[in-house]
Every structure is written in structure tokens, then in C-alpha cells.
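Subject: Interface between my chains keeps coming out wrong

I've been trying for a while to get a sensible model of this assembly. When I model each chain on its own everything looks fine, but I need the whole thing in one frame so I can look at the contacts. Pasting all components below, labels as-is. Any help appreciated, I'm running out of ideas.
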Amino acid sequence: MRRLKRKYMNDFPILNRKINGKDLIYLDSAATSQKPVQVIDAVTDYYKNHNANVHRGVHTLGDESTELYEAARKRVASFIGAVTPSEIVFTNNATDSLNLVAQGWGLINLKKGDVVLTTVAEHNSNVLPWEYICERTGSGVEYMELTDEGLLDMDVFKSKLTDKVKVVVLSHASNVLGTILPVKQISELAKEKGALVVIDGSQAVPHIQVNVQSLGCDFYAFSGHKMLGPMGIGVLWGRRELLSNMIPIRFGGGMVLDVDKKTYELAEVPECFEGGTPDVAGAVGLAAAIDYLDDYGMENVRKHEIELTSYAIEKLRTVKGLWILGPHNPDVRTGLISFVIDGIHSHDVASILDSEGIAVRSGMHCAMNLHKNMQISSSTRASFYIYNTLEDIDKLLAGIEKAVGLLK
Amino acid sequence: MDDNLYREELMEVYKSTKNRGTLVSPSVEVLEKNPLCGDQIKLQFEISEDGIITDAKFDGSACAVSVISSAYLMDNLVGKSIEHAKKLTKEDLMGLIGINLTTSRVKCATLALEGLKNAIGKYENGKSNTENKNKNR
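Reply #2:
Try treating it as a single job with all components included. I did that and got this:
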């Protein structure tokens, strides 16, 4: 297993960089992952050899580009267990996908008095699109609290799941707490009440095996760049019948079949949601990232991250005044750890770690509601991926101890 | 200019209580926040009739850059006129601290400066309101 990991680590050119004279230890994959040479090469190859606009001209390159783009769609569909590739809408990122659901579905289906049920732990990208739609439709967002450990109490969920709830909006895995929510159970309960389930899978798809059909949700959104793929490509999966009844939010070229001055005829799903020239190279790069993850094996990704997370929790617990946010059981969380050190601001921790070549995230991680709810001003987040090692965590611990020594 | 923000003399400023705390009867106070990173700093000034800052203190929870720049700023302001304080620029503040800050940390340093400008505005507003009230009597 060790040798296998080394083999994969050599695939990431950026890991050879020195930061402030030290070897880069990249612990910010929850913000964006690094890219293996296979993905970088796939993007380069596309631009060098196949670049042309898709679904338009009849020339050879146009065909090649279209075939690559549609092959990427198939690749994504099989990776997350979609029924057909046409259930995959390519977007710019998860934020874009979530806005598409909120506006494309929410605007025509929500009405006065309806409730959008979510938690305080959501990323801004999963809450603000709904707050905006609720304001316009007279519906309202209701926030569920989490337990002290950062879990969703299913009894709380059941009690909040009233007949007024039309849609349940949740992150599959929290970007701050790491908590993995029981989406399958949530979907079953929501279905009984006739509510839709929209899942932000940005922090889940890169780290755990996801099958949208067995999860039972209705929409599932994620970004390519957090799962070894390029920036600028995102995915919205939706049930075919729901996508077919949604309105497009980006009008223009490529999303219509016919235009006759005052009237137009929309293209089929998913093209009708992909107005304008898409990020074909991004889709090609995402397909290469999925190939890479499949080769590594998602069960191995999970195994590796549980090993790193267990080790990190054990080590970080030894630092006086440091407390870890979210559940401590690695089986119910992903490979990221957010923590707070009494009396030390997260920016200072991150700056001192940076001087040691260690990249972590500091601040509120776009989850203001959660931080305010926990009454903390900010936190530091170390997030792991397939290229991280136990030695990285030893260095993280040494860096944190240095920060505590300097600032306390 | 030095790149090392966490060198010993700056850490002494960070931990120092010299300009930290609260004034008994401040002429003006502001609470300055940076919601993105959660910094929150209260600035208080005691200003004499002839517009001289006679005392200045800050307090709150913030990162080292915010704290150090607040400490230097407060220290520098005592004994100076409001007119002098109004003219202070970001560059002046950077000169006082004497460190090269990365792009992402510059806004931490300028939090106190923004607070100072807001405090002066508030003070002068309050003064002109009082003067107007007096005139109207």
C-alpha cells in the first residue's frame, strides 16, 4: 500500500514545489485539489489536437470535440450511477449547479408559505440561491441545528419535515465539520412527505463512492476541481423527469432547436441548460480525473483518508487549547479537520504553517451561519487527499506547536 | 522591510498590553469588524477641546496583523491632532509596522486604519450635531 501511494504521489507535479524554502505540504484539498499529470495532459491534448466548438459545425474537429464532450458526460454518468448521460448537466461549478436548481426548479415550483429545509452547516453556495428564490416566491428557508458533535439528529429532521416543506437542501458532507449526512435515510423520509431532496456533493464525490440512485435524492451537484479535475467544470445531476420540467436560466446559443423572432423552441435536456460555449477541455479533464480516481479505487481513497483522519485527530488532540470541530469518529466524517486554538486567530495559524510550506485554509470557509452558531469567529482547516501522507500530519502538528509557542 | 511577521519584537507588540484595554470616558469609540475572517476590534479615543488625541486604546479578538497594526497606530496617535490622524494613509501604516504583508493579509492591517477614519467621522458628526443643537436653542 505504501509503495502504491508513492507511485500516485509522483503524478502530481506541483508537489515538487518549494514554498518558503520548504517542501510543499498541501492540506487544502477541500478548497481545491491538486491535479495529476494525466489530467493536465488530457486538457493540453484537447487544446493541441482536438479544439473546436461543439454541437455546431460539421467539420472533423467539430465532431471530435463533440464526441469527447459527450464521452465525458457518459463517464460522469457512470461514475455517479446516473440512469442515462442525459441526466448530467455540465455547469461551471457546484455553485452554478445549485443556482440552476434553485432558479430553474424553485422559481416555478415554490409558492408563498412553502418551506425550504436546510441546516446551519451549509456552504453559502447551497443557501444563498434558495434565500434569493424564497424572497421572490414568498417561501422561506428554515434552518435545522446540528448536535454538539456536529451530526444531524434524525428526530429533529423528522419534526421539521412538515407538509409545508417542498425541498430539503443539504450537503452530503460538510466543508467545515466533515460530517457525512445519511442522505439515503433523509431522502426516504422526504419522499414520504413529497419533498424533493437537493444535495451539494462537493465534499463527498471526491472522497466517497457516490451512487445517486441508491442515495434516492432528486438533484446532486458537485465541482470537478475538488476531485483532481480542472477548475471551471461542474456537474448537476437531476432525475430526468425533473430536468424536463425545469426552466433554463442561461439563454443563448446551443440551447435552442429553432428561433423565429418572437418564439423559440428549446433543445432537449441537458443541452437546454448549457447555453453558450461550454468548457469542453474542462469536461475532458474531468473525465481524465474520474479515470484516475477509478484506477486508484474510491474504496482506497476512503480507506486512505480514514487512516489519515484517525491519525490527525489522535495527534491534534495532544495540543493544549486546541479543539476539533465536528464528530471525532472517522467513519462518519470525510478527510478534513477544522480546529480552533484558544486565543489564537486562524489566520495566524495559517500564516505560520505557510512559513513551514504547509497550506491550510483559515477563516469561515464560506459557512458564516455555522461559525456564528458555534460562536467562533473563525477556524483553521486541514484537508487531506490521496497524495497526503502520515508524515504530512507530523509536519502539521509540528507547525501548530510552533504557532502555539510563538503566539501564546 | 522584513517578511517575518512572527519575529520576536513583533510578538512582543502582539502580547503587549500597553495600548490595549478600555478608556474610562472616551470621546468616541467604534467597533470595527471584518466579517470574512471574524476580526473584531474596538477602538476608543479621548480627544481634547482643541482636537488633540490625548489617549487611544483598542481591544477585541483579531489576528496578529490586526492587533499589531492597531497597537502601532494607537501608540502613534497619542499626542497628535485629529487633522494629522485624518491624513494617515495605508502606506504610513505599513511604514509604522515595517513588514511586507502578503496580499491576503493587507486587509487585516488596514482594519484599524478604517476604524480610525470611522471614529473621526463619528466624532466630527457628533460634534457638529451638538453645535447645531446649541445654535438652534
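Reply #3:
Confirming on my end. The interface with chain B takes residues 345-348, 351-352, 355, 362-364, 368, 371, 376-378, 406-407 of chain A (CB under 8 Å).
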